[in-house]
Amino acid sequence: MKLHAWFAAALLAVATAAQAQAPIRIGAFLSVTGPAAFLGDPEQKTLELYVERLNAAGGVLGRKLELVAYDSGGDAEKARTFAKRLIEQDRVDVIVGGSTTGETMAVVPLAEAAGMPFISLAGAVVIVEPVKKWVFKTPHTDRMACDKVFVDMKARGVAKAALISGSGGFDKSMRGQCLAVAKNHGIDIVADETYGAGDTDMTAQLTKIKNAAGVQAVLNAGFGQGPAIVTKNYKQLGIGVPLYQSHGVASKQYIQLAGDAAEGVRLPAAALLVAETLPDSDPQKTVVLEYKRAYEARFKQDVSTFGGHAYDGLMLAVEAMKRAGSTDKAKVRDALEQIRGYMGTAGVVNMSAQDHMGLDLTAFRMLEVRKGDWALVK
Amino acid sequence: MSASLAQYLLSGLTVGAIYALVALGFCIIYNASHVINFAQGEFVMIGGMATASLLGAGLPLAFAALGAVALAALVGMALARFAVQPARGASVVTLIIITIGAAILLRGLASIVWDKRIHALPAFSGDQPINVAGATLAPQSLWVIGVTALAVAALWGFFNRTLTGKAILAVSHNRLAAQLVGISVQRVLLVSFALSAALGALAGILIGPITFTSWDVGLLLGLKGFAAAILGGMGSGPGAVVGGLTLGLLESLGAGYVSSAYKDAIAFIVMLAVLMLMPGGLLGGRATERV
């Protein structure tokens, strides 16, 4: 009997020691393939790169990090299945993922029920509004993009603007937010057109906008190839008023696709895109430049803001674990909520009990395409 | 207002010409094998993506385009030889499902062989818009409409003036009789798959500068082309052209005059109405009209 007890105690001690050495498991579900692959692909690469780099630097809390990532293919149903697996089988310590709003919202109830700190990489404002106890997010919201654009329009004396948007989730959400906040800025939306996901030509919609009375600027909410086609058609029709794009096209690829037609187009985006041209006094410069160089050196690919969201997500999780001094889920969640003044690729993060994103309008820079490159609008 | 109308018509014709090319591809394979080839859209994708990657390798546009068309034709023949022919005893439904599988495989391969990014092809003759009756037209649209017209004329010549073309027609009318007079049905299948793959690739190259290309561009274009083929009458060459142009014009006029949100719905409602009144499609239903 006594021998048995000793044996059990020894086993327990060994098990506890093993526990201390066990890696911290970071769970992720991302749209690495499928229609949102341009989001998930850089996100996955970023997570892999930085888990490696953190481990090379000695890990976190003396433990190595281990990435458990699944490809949800942009499918909310799959995202839910994988999130369940991450929580129940893989027993991860935190989830960083959800490339699209649809996937994220499908997983929110699971994270809430399981008490799993969940940092989403998707854009829409519904993720953090109303605030959900366990859910955080890193990218700017579409409402902030609308605000930023309207502020810039106002500064240029625009009172009447037109809206053209795609039919995807991102597009629809941003369209709704823009329509809702336009009044706050004293801007009248006089035309509101849409196009389909696989559309090859938007001249009909743009002709309507061109003929709408008094349009002084046009805003295109969308991502992927749609906005590039809109930009080309816009130039072809010779519409003279300024064109604004959303942060959805904030990658070099947009300029490459739209070519000359993109000259003079403005869009709100994170500082990452103009890392090199930021003034040295800019507090964000070191962070974004370091991420950009690391990413581009490793993958020989232009950096995109989407990968930056994953960087921010991982780093916030790591920061919270360090502050909490453990991987206890409740402690990590509380620490996440208390993060203030953390500098990420998206901007300064000031989390609070009311704000699980922690970014404000200063995080967005207004960029303009000049000579085939991004330039900061002063 | 008439300038707007001109703009809608020009846009509709450009888009419609592309749908027509894709629809023609559906037609040719349908006639040779009664299979609706759901991998047709992937040929469009291969055309665009292969041209983009050959251009990237430093080839001039004309050679890159030729190479892409040849590659698509090879893929088309491989599809016929290794996927459709081995299952030749199976029902048409099985064959159609095989083409759906092939489409998924081709999309997956493209995302691995190339990448998942969107690529733009350079416009063949500049970006300076042309003014027509108060509307503007991209020079590339002229290429699209012109090359489509040429392709249609060449197809007509092929089916009516060459022995191979007539052999394909013969197989489409009566497979057994064609076999009895010594036509190799296998060869006809190969040729028709190569031909429709080449047509699809041509469409992909022509629209590359206007709408860009990516690994998953084939799915939606394939569906639109299929709709155009059904509208015109499945199996009818002239029907495919008429169906494609009609669909393009409906979309653009619908977006212009009714609502851009319901643009696709308008096009499909008209399509359903046409099919209810003329179940064979606009120009279908007459066996002798088959191309």
How many domains make up the coordinates of chain A? 2
CATH architecture of chain B, please?
Answer: Orthogonal Bundle
Shape of chain A: elongated
Shape of chain B: globular
Q: Give the CA-CA distance, first to last residue of chain A.
A: 79 Å
Return residue spans of chain A where pLDDT drops below 50 for at least 5 consecutive residues: none
Q: Summarize the helix and strand pattern of chain A as letters.
A: HEHEHEHEEHEHEHEHEHEHHHEEEE
Radius of gyration of chain B: 19 Å
- Biggest β-sheet: strands ordered side by side in the sheet of chain A: 2-1-3-4-5
Number of helices of chain B: 11
Pairing-aware structural class of the strands and helices of chain A? alpha/beta
Question: In DSSP terms, counting alpha (H) and pi (I) runs of 4 or more, how many helices of chain A?
Answer: 12
Q: Give a short account of the largest sheet of chain B.
A: 2 strands, antiparallel
The ordered string of helix (H) and strand (E) elements of chain B is HHHHEEHHHHHHH
CATH architecture of the largest domain in chain A: 3-Layer(aba) Sandwich
Rg of chain A, rounded, reads 22 Å
The domain tally of chain B reads 1
Greatest interface = A-B, 36 and 42 residues
